[in-house]
Amino acid sequence: MSSPNFDPSEAVIFDLAFGHVHLDGAPMRVMVPADALLALLVAAGEEETENLAHAVGETMGRRVAVRLGPDADTRYQAVRAAGFERVITELAGEVALIGLGALSAERWGKALVFVLDQSPLGAEGDGFVAAVLQAALRAAVGKQEGRMLSLAREDARARYLLVSGAVVEGVRSRLERGESWGAVLAALHAGGSGG
Amino acid sequence: MNTAEKVAALEDLLTRVQRNRGLPRGGWVAAPLVERLVDVGRGQEAPEIVVTGQLAGPASELVEMVDIRTDHRTTPGMPAVIPRSEALALEPPTRAQRTLEPPTLEPPRMAPVGLDETPSSPPSAPEIIFTEPVDADIDLDEELDDEEPITLAGEVPVPLEALPPPDLPAGPTQVSAGAPSSDVVTAKRPAIAPPTPLPPALPVAPFDGSGPQVPALPPPVAPVSIEPTTLQATPPPLLVEAVEVREREAPIKLTPRAVTPERLSADDVGEFIGEIQRLEPSDFGGVVEGTLALGFG
Fold first, then answer.
1. Most buried of A52, A66, A111, B15 (most Cβ within 10 A)?
2. Residue among B234, B249, B287 whose CB faces A89 most closely
3. Between chains, do B294 and A192 touch, taking CB under 8 Å as contact?
């Protein structure tokens, strides 16, 4: 299984003359400390955090879609038809460019689980990261049904589960009751059309 | 305040009352009544019921106006409130006044009477002692007026009449067992056949360890270890060094649970493998559709 490489060439441009940072052609990026960003997110509240995450993740997914589907008319179809590993590699590159950590993915049966290691935002930023990934996937695939949930965290490794909105509350309630995330994934396969 | 003062005070009161009500002044009030009224006026319990025979009109008015009613029963059997009729049941003022002392009653001496005994003598009637009449007041104790002389009715023992003897036969009743009224069918117990002798035991050859021929079982199938598809995105070239410094952990693998492995047949294994192969998506869109289709049972 060959792993496609993510090409970050000229993805980030430091315009020293103007003192600007450009990310994949998008100007006016600001590099701020992760702790400061997290403090702002906590102070802003959940709604504002989601708004910021949506803005960040949407641009990420759009860039992935542009790279995988140059043709605007068939862009989303190109992303869906692309290999699983290919898409994950592109998303991981985008996450790494903005400094959110190292992204990978796991498939537990039919469940798609994203794994993020070494996120500078830590556990407090799991909600923000989940919202970023959700927005990125929606923008990349052109599908708005997916919900990204924070599944578990083990030290510096956080897992996020992509599910439909119908099972969001069920997953959360089971996790709050103390069920392991493995048991939740197993229970997800017991029902539903995918079971 | 002595009696004379009480009488004077009450008469003065009566005078003023009668004057105010337009009644002629007159009459007198017995000292006990005065005392009673004064005591009642003081909120004390009336010592006794006193009926005067002097002040017909004024007395009734007095009873109403002074309101000597009390809730206390001064004498057993007497109403707590003096009825109007009692206050009006007066005697003519010219009649001689007598005071009836309570009679001295001697309890009848009665010996215990047995069931078959009769009293030796009837009880004697109580004696009533009349005292000398008093010129001044008449203290009539109503209890004594209404009280009947205690007379004990002579209880003549009535001899028990001989009850007629019950109409019973002289001797014990002879009950003879007759024929049963209902039909009783007595069935004879069937004869039990003698036990059938068991056939003699067949000779059993000693076990030589050989059994039926069973085809050899195929070798057990090894437990299947399921590993998740772990995709590790290749870090960008700019972060290669950083990734090497962090020394990331190995890809996550599905740890087999401590479950007793089941021996599956070849068909089961083949079906399971086929199921896994069916789970393999061919594209990212299929993976997303699969995870979105998950749900709880």
1. A111
2. B234
3. yes
